[in-house]
Amino acid sequence: MQNSKFRWYLISTITGKEAVIVEALKNRIKSENIEQFFDFSATEDGPFKVFKVPSITKTELNKKQKGLAYKVKWKNMFPGYIFVKADMQDLVWYIIRNTLQVTGIIGSGGGGEKPTPVSQNQIRKSLEKEEEAKKLFEENKNLLNLKVGDLVLITDGNWVGNEAVIEKIIVEDNMAEISFEDFNKKVEFKINLDWLTRIERN
């Protein structure tokens, strides 16, 4: 019978180390013999969930569009965070927060207060976003996972070489509305998402 006290919690970690930390936590759970306090039926990764979306570089995107072999990276939707479904007993709480590279559990205040669970509604919305990103990738729409507010470089068309900001994304048409300054005049127009590449801000 499943433990009715299982709830989702959010673990704060060092960004980029999520997969390593999940394995470390699994090993600690096993060595401490506390499996009964974790819902191993919650996900394909047991009680842990790292929400991931496909990410592809412009070079690999060109290969994909030509029908060639290409590489996809899977990025954490919430960098530096791991979700865990558990019965937050004192021992469970202690082991998680004292695992190497774990920086805390969100919602736990000072004075020994236990963390607050993540709402089921937030988990549901995150799952929907994850599935939507996978679906768009399979449909060859917004393959670079661009977002409103992203600074992008125009790589094709009449304005190639210009930097712009994404104002709106029209996913169903694989288009974006972008804007940039040209001789002190704001230029706005629609463009194919495949003609844009994200510029990482410092």
TrEMBL record:
One of its GO terms (cellular component) is cytosol. Residues 120-147 form a coiled coil. GO terms for biological process: DNA-templated transcription elongation; transcription antitermination. Pfam families: NusG. Residues 5-130 form the NusG-like N-terminal domain. PANTHER family: RHO-INTERACTING TRANSCRIPTION TERMINATION FACTOR NUSG, TRANSCRIPTION TERMINATION_ANTITERMINATION PROTEIN NUSG. Keywords: Coiled coil, Transcription, Transcription antitermination, Transcription regulation. The gene is nusG. This is Transcription termination/antitermination protein NusG.
